[in-house]
Amino acid sequence: MSLQVVVNFRVIDESDDWIVVDKPAPLIVHPANDKPEPTLLGGLEQLLAFEIENGACLGIITRLDRETSGIVLVAKHTRAARELGWIFERRQAHKEYLAIVHGWPEEEEWECAEPMLRAGELGPSPIWVRQTVHSTGKECRTRFRVERRFQRGGARFSLIRCFPETGRMHQIRVHLAHAGFPILGDKIYSGDGSEYLEWMADGWTADLQTRLILPRHALHATMLGIPWEGKPVGWESGLPTDMDEFCEGREISVTPGVVIWSRHD
């Protein structure tokens, strides 16, 4: 089956120093493994071709996983990249994510401060990027707040607002799975990772649809705030269509494997 790919995206805000975009899933941020496919960076290079010809040098500041949607901050030149990097290193940025998880947490708010490291550091792991909670891992802290509890098809789900205070790989996904509330559609952390290996080998199948429900993990970067030039600036992005449709009990319209998004000036 041939797939039609539309390479566009939504620009949220822009200045001489940075551009903020709303990345859809499953768009990858930058090229990986020399695989020819559309990337957010490639789209930005086309959009900002004139500025690049006149000295701009793009730098992705907030990297999101392929299947995570939402706000991405991109520096337009080296000085801005350096200053933005310092802001995040000093933990002066405020980030919020929305996630749909399995189950109903008993508490309205809670915190997870379990350290994390790559699972392969503890023993053989067939998934190189898989992270795990472990006492010898790096400091890691996330706060959570229940936004909504709902049922669909007789099963319980929750919409959770997540506040990562550190920036470890897969932090939110690991901490939610550790708490017993894995993110809907998460191939790596819904279980032991076997769903991810099956997906890599056979693609999206009816069996995976039954087990994972969504073709991508339901995690969205919904808010980002930073101090810039002496004042606070911030951006928001509402729930994407697939996550909103699931929460509202509607049929999900996103087709697995197809990257379709649009730019709005």
From TrEMBL:
Single GO molecular function: RNA binding
Matching InterPro entries: PsdUridine_synth_cat_dom_sf, PsdUridine_synth_RluA-like_CS, PsdUridine_synth_RsuA/RluA, RluA_PseudoU_synthase
Name of this chain's protein: RNA pseudouridine synthase
Family designation: Belongs to the pseudouridine synthase RluA family.
PROSITE patterns: PSI_RLU
SUPFAM superfamilies: Pseudouridine synthase
UniProt-listed Pfam families: PseudoU_synth_2
A biological process from GO: enzyme-directed rRNA pseudouridine synthesis
Pseudouridine synthase RsuA/RluA-like domain ranges (all copies): 17-178
UniProt cross-references to PANTHER family, sorted A to Z: MITOCHONDRIAL RNA PSEUDOURIDINE SYNTHASE, RNA PSEUDOURIDYLATE SYNTHASE DOMAIN-CONTAINING PROTEIN 1
Domain of life according to the entry: Bacteria
UniProt cross-references to CDD domains, sorted A to Z: PseudoU_synth_RluA_like
